[in-house]
Amino acid sequence: MTGAIFRPETAADVVDAIRDGQGPLAIEGGGGLKGLGRPIQAAATLKLDRLTGVVEYSPTELYVTFQAGTPLADARQALAEKRQRLPFDPPDLTRLYQGGGADGPATIGGVVAAALSGPARVALGAARDYLIGANFVDGSGNPIRGGGKVMKNVTGYDLCKLTTGAFGSLGAITATTFKVLPVAPAEVTLALVGLDDAAGQAALSAAFRSPFEPLGAAHLPADIARLIDAAPGEDALTLVRLEGFPESLAYREQAIRAYLPKQADILVLKDEASAALWAAIRDVAPFQAPDDRPLWRLSTAPTAGPALTAKLKSALGGSAYFDWAGGLIWFAPPTGAADAGAAIVRPAAHAAGGHATLMRAPEATRAAVDVFEPLSAPILKLTSGLKAQFDPKGRLNPGRMYAGV
Amino acid sequence: MVQLPDPDPEILAARDEIVAALRTLIAAPDGVIDHPDEIKPYETDALTAYKQTPLAVVLPETTAECSRIMRYCHQRGVKVVARGAGTSLAGGALPLQDAIVVGVSKMTDILDVDYENRTITLQPGVTNLGVTDVVAADGFFYAPDPSSQLACTIAGNIGMNSGGAHCLKYGVTSNNLLGVEMVLPTGEIVRLGGKHLDAGGLDLLGLITGSEGMLGLITEATLRIIHSPEGARPILFGFATSAAAGACVDAIIASGIIPVAIEFMDKPAIHATERFAHAGYPLDVEALLIVEVEGSNAEIDDLLGRIQAIAAAYEPAYERIARTSAESLAIWKGRKSAFGAIGRISPDYFCMDGTIPTGKLPEALARIGAICDDYGFQVANIFHAGDGNLHPLILYNANQPGETERAEACGGDILKLCVELGGCLTGEHGVGVEKRDLMTEQFSEIELDLQRRMKRVFDPKYLMNPHKVFPLAEPLRRLEAAE
Predict the structure, then answer these.
(1) Which of A204, B36, B58, B133 has its CA 20 to 30 A from that of B391?
(2) Is residue A14, in this structure, part of any structural domain at all?
(3) Which residue from A minimizes the CA distance to B189?
(4) Whole-model pTM above 0.95?
């Protein structure tokens, strides 16, 4: 990527930069997720990392507005001071990439553009579920507002959801408003030791058949658990996370055991120990740089996860772990295959009723194979059609998701 | 009254031909309704101030039939209005004289119940409460709970992104919808999402949820089902002022407790419902709060105790904890019958649906009172206090000449106030025809044009529910001229 770099300091500057500029623009926040998506050819870069800070925060009304370039860490800190949080538990994935986050911090805008949600997504919902307002500038330089600052809003089409996960292809996001929720006073994780993938996943489904509202549900095979400092022991761990007021938590921690497999040893991790383990799962610590293997993120029905993973591992080798009760699989095949294993991964994901994203691979690979789930003809037509309405000249992150989009 | 577009005389004249063609597209002999008496129930929805007799009503049974119908209408240039149960308060299912109505009442199959993955897949004519009925015996429920849940369909819930009293904790339809199969206005069949989370590509599932039947026909839906908590019980508070009730809500939220529901009623709403439902509500208070929490009995007692302690600072004039499920039902009985109760004391009412930031409640109530005084209408306010969704009910009499129009204008002023206070025109009912011409209060022309152009991507001939959501005439002509 070459050419000029614009670093606007206000949303009005973003309007000017797009309105006055010519040619394709690469849009980024901190720049730490540049390795995610198809490589793009841009005449210039629109870098939004100077658009930072809390615009408005009303803890009792449960909403917060951040400028898009606000570092994720700062956003978390601002909310933590009022004992609140972004319920979808956004991960910092910048350390998956070469440079290990040295390109710049994870930003709120990046979290939204890439639709990144953490372990709590399985219980509380995704980035798209908590983004209640989004300001962005379309490809013609028009400032557009989606949503607002209220959590119930069905006025017109839901542009917030469409913006989430669009990788900047529909607009340069300048500000984001989220519904926030309180942090529970206490948390605990039950760690079942030594289950295989299928038994681990079954235990996670069972936890969700209880009335005790698990907040997180993950399964770490032994080879992965050993890579995580916060994970106790050397064996596979099947994790069920609970949170609440202390008395309630003590009750639920006991009561949920009746739903879990009787024969498994259960370790109990409390508060900081629990939080540290889930942060590692959230930020995909087992596969962070300097690991540079290809990395796939597969989403499927939870019960389909173990068989799908077994199929991938037997065909390609590599390692994997499960979040979202088994429905989110992080899979790293060995380095070497020119297509990063796409010829195996894509049909397998499809057959399991899910889809796959190539989260990390060398640039040449990402130029040659689909990074995002290939779209059926009518869906591709809708996608291209929407792109043409938001960005008629195809200037915003062209081709980052799909060729021609 | 909101203006409806003039019918196309060519289409009206071709009614027999169109009806005959539709009959060839579906299997059921009674699947096309064209007799005037049988069409009558489809002329309006719960926004009864508006009525339009459609060309015909079609009730397909399968996705393939829906596809054939849409393909035909696209080719023939016939407008289509999708209809669930017709419970829209915004005119979302209001037909047009030159349109056909496509109803989902024959598409009611449950296709798959999957507790291990916590999903249910069904045809969209299943009612909202019908979903929970299927899974309740196994301890599960479907969370969105609009007031009309006994009648309203999943198709309509998806079209309008319906909410309910419990969405403070569980979210609205879009937060509980995992996938759909839908027929595009061109007749193409597509699938979005499924049993997995975060479907690939752009979030088209998010876009079509709440798109008010303008982007396609939903033919199948996969919903998130959740295991029920061990129990749920409310506490009822009465306060001397609305401001005290509002401050109490803020304090509960600030303490870190997120109740499953926080419902607010003002004095006129309390009085109307008490007379009707005899729920034992206090009559000498200005504001009533119902705060419900979930968990085991001990957890509920603990949380209600905490809430009671917080509320004490706001000096509630009345409080009543539900100790049993019967006492819970008694507390909810009044709130759940509120709309019916208002219907008893007034010949007609408009149920408004703005949302405001919750901290603006006292100001909003004072100014809504003033607006209604100016117009000479009584108003009762019901409010989902946790999420800011306000339902002022404007009481009027449609038989008095000009009163419907004045009540509409009064409602419009209330919604403008919601926007001014930092909120929006509609929280869960949708824009429909009711709020269509107010959209310019919330959006710029550029923003509205963008949304109209988005519709055209799905519906190139602008045939699906073309008279809804976006102000008509000029902009449409401009779009056409640009093409």
Answers:
(1) B133
(2) no
(3) A378
(4) yes
Q: Where are the alpha helices (DSSP H) in A81-220?
A: 108-113, 121-124, 127-130, 159-163, 197-208
Nearest CA in chain B to A113: B202
Q: Are B334 and B277 in contact (CB under 8 A)?
A: yes
Q: Does A164 touch chain B (CB under 8 A)?
A: yes
Query: Which of B117, B387, B447 lies nearest to residue A145, judging by beta carbons?
Result: B447
What is the pLDDT tens value at each position of chain A, 405 positions in all?
Answer: 458 999 999 999 999 999 998 899 999 999 999 999 999 989 899 999 999 999 999 999 999 999 999 999 999 999 999 999 999 999 999 999 976 556 789 999 999 999 999 999 999 999 999 999 999 999 999 999 999 999 999 999 999 999 999 999 999 999 999 999 999 999 999 999 999 999 999 999 999 999 999 999 999 999 999 999 999 999 999 999 999 999 999 999 999 999 999 989 999 999 999 999 999 999 999 999 999 999 999 999 999 999 999 999 999 999 999 999 999 999 999 998 889 999 999 999 999 999 999 999 999 999 999 999 999 999 999 999 999 999 999 999 999 999 999
Cα B278 from Cα B266, distance rounded (Å):
16
Instruction: Determine, yes or no, domain membership for B163.
Output: yes
Enumerate residues 6+ apart whose C-beta is below 8 A from B6.
none
> Residue B23 sits in which domain range?
9-103
A56: in domain: yes
Question: Looking at B207, B227, B247, which one is the last position of a domain?
Answer: B227
Task: Tell me how many domains chain B contains.
Answer: 5
Q: How many CB atoms lie within 10 A of CB B174?
A: 25
Nearest CB to A165 within list B117, B190, B203: B203
Together in a domain, A190 and A167 = no
Q: DSSP strand E in A245-362: where?
A: 265-270, 295-299, 319-323, 328-332, 355-360
Q: Is A311 in the B-facing interface, judged by CB distances under 8 Å? A: no
